[in-house]
Amino acid sequence: MGWKILIGLITALIAAFMVLLSQMNVTPGILMHALFGEGVKTPSESSLQRRLELPEGFSVGLYAGNIKNARFIEFSRSGDLLVAQPRENKITLLKRDANKDGKADGEVTLMNGLFRPHSIDFFGDYLYIAESHAIGRIRFDHVTGTAVGAYQQIITGLADSGNHWTKTIRFGPDGMLYLSSGSTCNVCEEEDPQRAAITRYEPDGSGEERFSTGLRNSVGFDWAPFDDTLYATDNGRDLLGDDYPVCELNKVELGNFYGWPYVNGFGDLDPDFGDQAKLNQARSPVHGFRAHTAPLGIRFINSETFPAEFKNAALVALHGSWNRSTYDGYAVVSLHHQKDGSFVEKDFLTGFEINGKVMGRPVDIAQGPDSCVYVSDDYAMSIYRVCYGETQSDAGTSTIRTGLETGLAAFSETRIAELSARGEHLFKTRGCTGCHGVTRDRRSFGLRPLEGIHTKYTLESLSAFYRTPTPPMPPVRLGNDEDELALSTYLLTLD
Questions:
Q1: Where are the alpha helices (DSSP H) in 106-261?
Q2: Alpha carbon of 323 to those of 105, 291, 423: distances in Å?
Q3: Phi, psi at residue 483, to the nearest 5°?
Q4: pLDDT tens digits for range 178-214
């Protein structure tokens, strides 16, 4: 009887939880991503071209894919792109685009065995890494793209419990190391003064100084080229409705207090912790993003190729809402500085969310040596490349790469077309359609879609999979190598 009661209680709790999710318009996928970092597979290049929108003259392409939990990114002096992957406990190096095809020339694991590394930065001959509980550094050879010597933690004992465990580091124009650490909670009074604050250090980790406080979760920050002042994004608190309070952009200066948890947005006392004395001390943001859009990475752009209107402008990655009745965010926006110190927000890279269908969640921005900007996406495991005055076609051909070579580059387009046509015939006549569709709209019939196979397999690995597939799929027996090649070609050229 006890077990039946327990099972009934668990069932009721699950049902109630699903009702709550429905009321909040939270899909299980977004919730799993918010809690555990679970995402979706890398979109195809042609999907990006169909979905994503940019201002006139700009283009977007897929620089690299299958980069799990891609968070903060930074370029080396030689053009290699480093990616922090906290849930993978490693730093990946995407090799510089030496052949100028708009794709990374491969990837290597630069550092492994770390503890939730969230951001990186370079200073002098060192690569600095922000783990969730410590800041470390290691010598870095920018020419070879390799770490040299031993990794040393120079700041230890950082608290990483609670909601916002990530740590973000950047070196400022003053040569000091700045560290942002988010709050432990949605709204509360912190016991640890380093939480919900920005702290700065000497490059060797000494001289800790609290730079600013009252910042609930300032994941991203950068210095403006027009005044060398630090600007930081900040995520507003939850559970006060769809549209309140705003997320913030703060002009962060030494010794200032920015309101949390006592003051929200532009001088509003918090309903739980409101304090008039704190209100008199708090600095208001210089810009308000819409509530729950979750602004993360910010980068002031200094691109020689971008239009004049982007001078003194910043790009901000909006990670997107998980707790609104309708989705918001899921975009990159541009902030244009005005003479009065305010900012005008404009759409820049949009289309990651359409009618509740989420394809990606932007995290961070970096400017490359080619004057293009690069955007990380921890939901779609992707790094996007955005350029002005350059065409990046959907490239639905053999040259597409998303972290892995397909092996089709050795064939002519005519040969690929012939093989693909033969492969499609085999797919339809050898029983494959009994279990698999080729596009997501087939899911309504209970079929597993196969688009994007090129993001996971090569010709060689796909052929090996036919012979020893993952159960319950039976072995695929095609009879000869040519048919095997044809089926693989067809599957690898699907969107």
A1: none
A2: 38, 10, 44
A3: -65, -40
A4: 999 999 999 999 999 999 999 999 999 999 999 999 9
Q: How many CA atoms lie within 13 A of 8 on its CB side?
A: 5
φ, ψ (nearest 5 deg) of residue 453: -60, -30
What confidence tens digit (pLDDT) does each residue in 420-453 have?
888 888 888 877 776 776 544 433 334 455 656 6
In whole angstroms, give the CA distance from residue 402 to residue 42. 8
- 122, β-bridge pairs: 127
Q: Where are the domains of the chain?
A: 1-27, 28-388, 408-492
In this structure, how many other beta carbons lie within 10 angstroms of the beta carbon of residue 18?
11
Q: What residues are paired with 168 via a beta bridge?
A: 180
DSSP 304: S
Contacts of 16 (CB under 8 A, 6+ apart): none
Distance CA 492, CA 327 (A): 33
Task: Please provide the size of the chain in residues.
Answer: 495
Residue 79: name the closest of 65, 93, 64 by CA: 93
Whose CA is closest to 259, among 187, 348, 317? 187
CATH class of 28-388: mainly beta
Provide the pLDDT confidence category of residue 1 given band limits of 50, 70 and 90.
very low
Amino acid at 350: T
239-247: average pLDDT: 95
Task: Go through 77-104 and write b for each residue having 16 or more CB atoms within 10 A of its CB, e for each that does not.
Answer: eebbbbbbbbbbebbbbbbbbeeeebbb
User: Of 399, 375, 402, 398, which Cα lies nearest the Cα of 387?
Assistant: 375
Say yes or no: domain 408-492 is CATH 1.10.760.
yes
User: Could you give the 3-state DSSP secondary structure of residue 176?
Assistant: coil
